[in-house]
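Retry 2 of 3 after timeout on previous attempt. Resubmitting structure tokens to design endpoint.
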């Protein structure tokens, strides 16, 4: 089922708030189960067609291992730190970052 303009507008408005789905639905008099179903459809439709921006923080820190290779450090907003060799495939890293988003 294609997402209607009405639901797309609500979903995108909700994403810009700090409200839970339930709170947004109460505030806008929406059925929360319907909202969740439409959100799932929205995410499936956007997963393949639209790129996702993931916020990252750039630092000057370089870590050199015993082998002399530099590592890439990725810090996630949730507090996780990912250390990867600089030889990691850009395509693989791109897929990983999309998955983390």
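Retry 2 succeeded. Sequence:
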């Amino acid at each position: 089922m294609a997402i209607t303009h009405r639901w797309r507008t609500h979903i995108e408005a909700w994403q810009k708030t700090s409200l839970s789905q339930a709170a947004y639905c109460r505030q806008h008099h929406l059925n929360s189960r319907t909202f969740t179903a439409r959100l799932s459809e929205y995410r499936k439709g956007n997963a393949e067609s639209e790129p996702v921006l993931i916020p990252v923080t750039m630092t000057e820190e370089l870590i050199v291992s015993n082998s002399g290779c530099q590592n890439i450090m990725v810090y996630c907003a949730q507090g996780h730190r990912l250390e990867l060799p600089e030889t990691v495939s850009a395509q693989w890293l791109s897929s990983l970052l999309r998955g983390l988003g």
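Attempt log closed. The CA atoms of residues 67 and 85 lie 11 Å apart.
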